[in-house]
Request: fold
Amino acid sequence: LIKNGIEIQCATADFDVAGKHYPAGSWVVKTAQAFRPHILDMFEPQDHPNDFRYPGGPPIPPYDVTGYTLAYQMGVKFDRILDAFDGPFEKVSGVQKPAAGTTLGPARPAGYLISHEQNDSFIVVNRLLKNGDQVYWLKQPTTLAGRRVGAGTMYVPARAETLAVLDRAASELGVTVQRVESRPPGEAIKLKPIRIGLWDQYGGSMTSGWLRWIFEQFEFPFEVVYPAALDRGDISSRFDVLVFPSGAMPRPPGAPAGGRGGGFALRQPNAEEIPEEFRKMLGRVTTEKTLPQLRKFVEAGGTIVTVGDSTSLAQFFGLPVKNALVERTPEGVERPLPREKFYVPGSVLQVSVDNTSPIAYGMASIADVFFENSPAFRLSPDADLKGVKPVVWYASATPLRSGWAWGQGYLENTVAAAEASMGEGKLFLLGVEATFRGQPHGTYKLLFNSLYAGSAKAAP
Reply:
């Protein structure tokens, strides 16, 4: 907001407005200023009109994204105040950094607790593991900095080299850290350092490019990997986790034309047409060569994280996961719902979250997600017995929060994200665009947790 010329105020003391108490440090964004429409765009839902070709006819679909309310996507908590008010506020200038955190508790701790609710805590995890520290996620709720928090709070045993990493994180990132006298009781899972392989293709993939940028910002150890390298096999010697964003997988049988489809519309040049240094980038994920190697990788203990339409990998692997957005013709043939019945090109929807699952640690039980022609699943009755569990789902027939969602009722009780055990490894299916163009910070944790959860081991 500040970068776009919006005036922001910060409370220098506690205050009350409209019967609610707000602490010092709260931000105040008044709309009586220039660029008021931009403020409303960032906080208020977009309401795209329903235009019809003719009375009683099909809708005229929007071309592209219709809902993008950034406060929703980023999980920002705010209140809309209609009446004018004032208080102990002062204007801020320059881009704001998070308020510095502190490390609280005894001077000689047994270890440290770190909040799982802050995205930046993953920067701390990546630094700690690189530093040789051990990191655990607690399975039971606990108390952190005097506040009751849910499952997933991070515990780090104290070493001489640990405090410097945490002090730096608290001051730079504002991450909440608490010293504790003894290791917390109850079950936990222990993280291991991971090597991430991020799929990309010759000519570049936008979805992969955004993930590359996010991994860089949060200091994840990753390497870009191209299909030819996957086809050669022995993937586990190089990677612990593979990430496939939208557009990576071949189109499954019966899928509609259009969409990204693995960039299949992009021409792949002949090897002799490009310099030798770029030839390793050629090729696509194929059912004949790549998918058998991926199955071998995950069954041997690897982790695969799929996003958006790349969740079709579950279908190729024969898991009890079906496309929920289909209909059956009078002839008994199953086909995708036509646009006249269901079409959500880009909107913010509300979901329910099982935040006791490790891939949703740190999230609230209700969240806003970005949906862009995204898949939705139905799990077979025996899915749980086969190791497939829902983590995020659409609990309502009206999940639309911002934008346009034609036929949104089809989403009711369908699954938006799931996890699957395969052999010794894990496959994560993030149907929603959890990191769409670097915007939805509120759902980053679905991806970040998945990266570590697959290889994490139970710890007494």
Summary: The chain has nine helices and 28 strands. The first helix runs from residue 36 to 43. Residues 257 and 419 are 27 Å apart (CA to CA).
